[in-house]
Amino acid sequence: MRRLLLAALVALFAAPVAAEQLVSQVSSDEVAITSSFTGQTLTLFGSIEPEAGSDRKYVEGPFHVVITVTGPLQKRVARKMTNQFGIWINTEQAVFEEFPSFYQVLSDARLDTITNPITLAEKSIPLDSPKIGKTSAPYPQSQLFRTELVELMKKKGQFKLNEQGVIFRSNTFYFAQVSLPSDAPPGPYLARTYLFKDGEIIAERSNGFSVRKIGFERFLGLASRQQPLLYGVVCVVLALFTGWLGGVVFRR
Hints:
Elements: H1 2-14, E1 20-26, E2 30-33, E3 40-50, E4 64-70, E5 73-84, E6 87-100, E7 103-107, H2 111-114, H3 117-122, H4 139-155, E8 159-162, E9 166-168, E10 173-180, E11 187-197, E12 200-213, H5 216-226, H6 228-251
Parallel strand pairs: 2-12, 7-8
Antiparallel strand pairs: 1-3, 3-10, 4-7, 4-11, 5-6, 9-10, 11-12
């Protein structure tokens, strides 16, 4: 009897553990900004397959998918204005390093039904996650400023949560669409896909794409950073010339 029990335990631990993998892709790896750019919609799609080298031919769900899209990281300063003797002045501030200029979260269901808050926080998925943006400000103050900064970004359309943004076309194939606004910050973007089963993350995948200016817009952007003095002088000269030309035309 003991030998049978021991053999059963050995067989149990020797059996291959069911594992899944994500195969994902972005519809375009580059978004070009021109003078007529009004925004663009990208499609993120993928499938859930057995892990490479596995003998299984299919996977068993149900599954949930959460996708986060993070834009270029920037330095942000959040300030609080208070009324001092009838004058509104900045009295407090928090500086955030590596704060996303763009952040969207898409899922196929409500986040609180997919997994627990601890798992979400570990992956910095919530829009106001304490892990978004590094700051030296103490926690109560930093979280207050972070929440207000996120609200401002949400009003601009730069931060967004869409809990119906991921759509399953079958048990294993999904897609999602990310809308980039007309003022999408140029730079590298990273889309992270998390596969959930029974509330746990069982697979992850990352895909990148870039947003960049081309043509005359790119030339102006580079000139403003690399030759700021010359760029400023040219802008002033063009403004004076345009004002003079307008005065001549309307005088006639």
